[in-house]
Amino acid sequence: MDRVDLVIIGGGINGAGIAQCAAAAGYRVLLLEKGTVGGETSANSSKLIHGGLRYLEGGHISLVKNSLTERRTLLRLAPHLVKAIPFYIPVYATSQRNQWIIRAGLTAYSVLSEFDPLGRFRSLPVEEWGQLSGLKLQGLTAVFQYWDAQTDDKALTKAVMRSAVDLGVQSIEYAQCEGIVHKPDYCEVNYIHQGNQVSLKAACVINAAGPWVNDIIDCVIPPMGKQEVDLVQGTHLLLDIPAPDGILYLESCFDNRVIFVMPWKQKTLIGTTETLLPELNGKPESTREECNYLLGIYLHYFSNFDSIEALESLVIETLCGVRVLPKESANSFDRTRESFIKTSITHPRLLTLYGGKLTTFRATAKEAVQWLEVTLGKKVAIADVDKLPIL
C-alpha cells in the first residue's frame, strides 16, 4: 500500500491551494477529485477577487482586510488571470443605502486596503452617468466608482493545480472517495478510480470537498461528528447583451441583497442568488424563481428592455454553484464567508474545511498547512508560495 504525507479530497480552489502550499512546504501530497479540477463551485462563482465591500455591513472587518491583502497578492502573482476592473454603485432616491452610507463604506474600504492604489474611489459627475450601459437615470442621485478585480475562476483553479503538480503533487480526477479509516498512526484512504478499488496510507487527510464535505465525513471510520451547515445555491445568468465597461454593484429591488452586473466573455453576467437547499442531489440546477429574481432586477435598473420574457430569450448560459455556510438563524446574505476549519481530538489526523472565499484561498491554505506542520512536524520547504507565479 502506497503512503503519502497528505491526501486532499476535493479539487476546487481550496483543495488546489492547499495542495500547492503543502507541496511547497515539502510534503508528499495526493489530491482526489470526484469530477474535474475546478469543475463545480469553483467554476460557478461571481468570478471576483475582492475585499467584499458589502461584508463591512455585517462587521466582518478582518475578512475584508485579509481579502484586500490577498487581492493585492493575486494581482502580483497571476496578472494574466486576475485583473483590476472598475465597479460602479448607482444610488437612487429610493435606495436603502443612501450616498452618505456608501461614501462611508468606500472610505473604510480604502483605509482597509492600506491605501493601495486600487483603494481610491470617486463620485462620478452627472455628465458621465449616461455612459453606464443603459442604466436608468430617473431618480438617480449619485454614482460612485471604485476598484476591485475579476478573474476566470475555473482557469485560476486549474493554474494553481498546475503549480501544485509542478511541485510534486499527484492529482487524480474522477476518483470517488469510498472510505477513510482513521488509525492511530495513519489514515487508510479508499477510493475508486477507473473502476478499480485503490487503498493507500496517508499520515493526514484534509477534507476540502465543498458542498459534499459532510458526505465525506459520513464515510469516516470510526464515525465522527460533523458541523451543521446550510447549503446555499447561487445562480448567475449569462445574457446575450454586450458587456458593460465595468461591474455594476446593484441593490436588489426585491430585498436587501446586492447583485452584480458584470462583463463576461464579451457578454453580460448577472448574479447571484442565495437559495437554501434542503439537500444536494447531483448537479445543482437553477430554479425559475432564481432566474426571475435576477431578470427582474436587471429590468428594474436598465431601460433597454420592457419585459422579463424579452430578457429571458437572451439567456445564453446558466451558472449554478453551491456555497457552504454555518447553520445560523440569520439569513444567508448576512452570514460570514470566512472559511472555518474543524478538527477533532478523536480523529487528530483529519482536518475538515467548511466554506471559504475564492479571494482568500491562499490564506486558507496556509492555515491548513500550519495544522499539518503541528501534526507531522515541519519539512524542508522547496518553494515560497508568496513568490511563486501562478501561470
TrEMBL record:
Its cofactor is FAD. InterPro entries: FAD-dep_OxRdtase, FAD/NAD-bd_sf, G3P_DH_FAD-dep. The keyword Flavoprotein applies. The keyword Magnesium does not apply. Keywords: FAD, Flavoprotein, Oxidoreductase. Residues 5-362 form the FAD dependent oxidoreductase domain. It comes from the Bacteria. Gene3D superfamilies: D-Amino Acid Oxidase, subunit A, domain 2, FAD/NAD(P)-binding domain. Belongs to the FAD-dependent glycerol-3-phosphate dehydrogenase family. This is FAD-dependent oxidoreductase.
